[in-house]
Every structure is written in C-alpha cells, then in structure tokens.
Amino acid sequence: MPTLEALVERKIAALQPPLAVTLPGGRRLGPLPAAVTLVLQDLRALVHLATGQIGRVAEDYVEHRLDIGGAPRDVMRLAVQLIAADPTGEQRRSPLAAWRELLGAGRALARHTPAADAQQVQFHYDVSDDFYALWLDERRIYSCAYFRDTGMTLAQAQEAKLDHICRKLMLREGERFLDIGAGWGGLLLWAAEHYGVRGHGITLSRNQHAHVNRLIEERGLRGRVRMELLDYRALPEDAPFDKIASVGMFEHVGRANLPVYFAKIRRLLKPGGLLMNHGITAGGTRNRQLGAGIGDFIDRYIFPGGELLHVSHVLREMAGAGLEMLDTENLRPHYARTLWAWSDALESRLEEARALAGERVLRAYRLYLAGSAASFEQGWLSLHQMLASAPSGDVGQGPMRGAQSSYPFNRDYMAKR
C-alpha cells in the first residue's frame, strides 16, 4: 500500500503549473523549479493535500501549519485541480446527520437573531476600514462590479454597477429609497446625488455607520440621506418606500430566515414599488455549502453565519412573500473579475495590510479573495441581480394596463444612457 508521501507525490506529478512540497523534515516532493511551493510545518497538512480538502489546506496556511509561495492565480489553478470532487455536488449525509438537521431548524433560526447577525457582520466588516481601503476602490464598494465595457477600471465598473442598479429601479427625484446593508454608502450616496432620491440606509457595522454619516455631513446631504445602525427586522413599516435595494446583504440572512426577510421587504414596499435584491448565490442546486472544506473555511475565517442558496430557491421564497420577479441577471463573470482586481490590489500592498490587520487576517483574506475569484470562474458560485415588484392589485387603464407596478413592458429603459 503506497505511503501518504507517495500518494501526494503521484497526485502532484501531473499538475500544471508545477507544485513542489517541502515536508517538515526537509524532504522535497515535486519538480524543480516549481511555480508554487508549499512548505509544511505540520504533517496534518499533507493529509489534507492528499484528500483534496482544499479548505483545510487553506486553514493550515492561516494557522501557520504551512507556507505558500507563488502568484495567487497559479495557486488557485492548482487548487482547482487538487479538489477530489465537484464542490457544488450534493454532500453525502448519513440518516443520523439528516435527522439532526431536522432537529436543528430551531438552532438555524437562533444563529440569525438580530444580536447574532450583528456580531457576525461586525466580525467581518469591522476588521479595519483602512485595511479595506487598501484594496477596494475609492468609494469602498464591496460588491460585484459591472464591467459594462471591457476596458473599464475597477472604479469605473463599480460606478457602472451603481448606475445599473439605479436604472433598473427607475429611481426618480423625491422618491423614498431604502438601502438594506448599505456598506460604506456607495449606492446610497450615488442614488441621492445622481437621482435626487431621499435615501435611508441601514447597516449592522459600526465602522460603516460612522463612515457614511461622516460622508453625509461632508457632502451636505443631511436631511436628504439618513444612515442607521439597525437590523432590517427592526425597520418601522408605517411609511413604506418607493424603491428598495439590498446589495450583498441577503447572504447573511440564512436559509431559515429567508421567508422573514422577503416578507419584511414586501411590507416595506409601497404597492407597485420595486426591489433590487443583488447577492451571491450557490452554483449547485443541492449543496448546503461548498465542499472540499471550502465552506467551512469561509464560515470560520471570513463570513460566520453566511449561507448561500441557489437562485431558484431565492426566487421561490421571493414569490412566496408576494413579490413578483420582473428581471433576473447573472453577473457571475463580473464578480470573478472584481475579485481578481481586489486580490491584485491587496497583493501589491501586503506590508501595509499586515500592519493594519495582522498576519493571520491577511493570510485569510489573501486566500479568500483569490479563492472566491476562482470559485466564480469555475461556476461554483454565482451572482444574481433580481428585480421584483410589490404588485399594486390595480390593473389600471391604457397602454400599461395590467402592469400593477411602474415596471415597463420591456428592458429597453435599462440600457438608455
């Protein structure tokens, strides 16, 4: 029976680009020279490498059980080859595990209480504003850009995304606009300054809340734009909004809470109002998270409590809440390009990032950004913009008869500039 070292040596022999592994005792596996090197301080990492548990290899890197050398794109090309099975496939569960999952429905809801969600969001977004500023664009837009033209810079593509959302929502001057999970205020301020809306943003991140309120004061938007540190479930429903956007937020809601989330949005929307739900969706239809240990790594080091669902499941829950899907667009390749731009920016400023966030956080984010880029390239993850309406119930008169919202009969209005 071959030894563990022999199994790994056989596995890496055919990889491109070449990979070399140095064991704790100094023995080297793989060719010379190599584009990517792994230097192991702990033999547990060799087990994870042999079994294709890439998420566990990433954990070994963060916990200093191994070091990685090589360009992020080369590292991820190898990671894709090393995974033993499709990470979007249905993960096998024993009957006992399935029974525990049924019994765990209450625990799933408990994982997404307002207090738990606030703690989880702050774990990620309150690492350091200066750290994020190193690799995001100047507006600190932390969601998928829209490369409307292939030659766009990241900053240009982020502005194109903001405008793409505003056009889809048909924002008009004076409308009341809600931004759920408003981040560092990119969309909220763009909508106010370019479309004249009265904006209301909410976040669970203390850093983001303070940052956006500073920008509101600096730009003279007090009275027109408001930013609150508030859970979406706590929003008053006595004054519904004309338009609502949720960008990069519903990934934190959780499968069990998705009906609550969409029902709340339905009550917050005026009859005939429009919703833009923009977020990451699962590439597979049956997997609870990405396999090969990837989902566990993300949950532990990056987005605790995050849950991804296939777009078909999201649209079903949306319809169940009384929201009518009007238009759905897949921006998956746009997010791969966005993430590589973030990864490149972080790689160019590693020493500054290390000083701001520490070595452990930096290691986690280096793998998270490059690994997520590869996951979108492979189709393991996707990104959907889902435009929906709250039907008014009034079929109306004339050429728009039956629309029950302000959404027109075709998509032409989205492309007009």
Automatic annotation (TrEMBL):
<comment type="similarity">
    <text>Belongs to the CFA/CMAS family.</text>
</comment>
<dbReference type="InterPro" id="IPR003333">
    <property type="entry name" value="CMAS"/>
</dbReference>
<keyword id="KW-0808">Transferase</keyword>
<keyword id="KW-0443">Lipid metabolism</keyword>
<feature type="region of interest" description="Disordered">
    <location>
        <begin position="394"/>
        <end position="417"/>
    </location>
</feature>
<dbReference type="Pfam" id="PF02353">
    <property type="entry name" value="CMAS"/>
</dbReference>
<dbReference type="GO" id="GO:0008168">
    <property type="term" value="F:methyltransferase activity"/>
</dbReference>
<dbReference type="InterPro" id="IPR050723">
    <property type="entry name" value="CFA/CMAS"/>
</dbReference>
<keyword id="KW-0489">Methyltransferase</keyword>
<keyword id="KW-0949">S-adenosyl-L-methionine</keyword>
<dbReference type="InterPro" id="IPR029063">
    <property type="entry name" value="SAM-dependent_MTases_sf"/>
</dbReference>
<protein>
    <submittedName>
        <fullName>Class I SAM-dependent methyltransferase</fullName>
        <ecNumber>2.1.1.-</ecNumber>
    </submittedName>
</protein>
<dbReference type="GO" id="GO:0032259">
    <property type="term" value="P:methylation"/>
</dbReference>
